[in-house]
Amino acid sequence: MKKVLLVFTVLTLFSIPNAYAQKSASYTSAQKFGRGLAGMTTGFLEIPGNIVKETKAQGAIGFPIGLATGLGMTVTRELVGVYEFLSAPFPVPSGFRPILTPVYPWDYFE
Fold this sequence. Notes:
The chain has four helices and no strands. The chain has one domain (2-45, 75-109). It is elongated and about 45 Å long. It has 110 residues and is an all-alpha fold.
């Protein structure tokens, strides 16, 4: 069990610098791994992120729309995160382009 935890910790630490390199023109499997890990662990940020996005765009009526969109996107972000996390070592699809926009859930707050 300790070995599994150590491997997970090391992989996580190697993926953190790649999480901030999202603006580069080429995407690597390490960045795909980082996107997947971020999607699985911080997918809940879709709820406040979509509320903020919709209220900025539509005013007060955007709150319930953002809440509903955020709930749906939380599930989507988690599932896409699992896919990217598990498929990171394999060169499929070619180019490793991000599936969701924004690439990371915390990008809503920039």
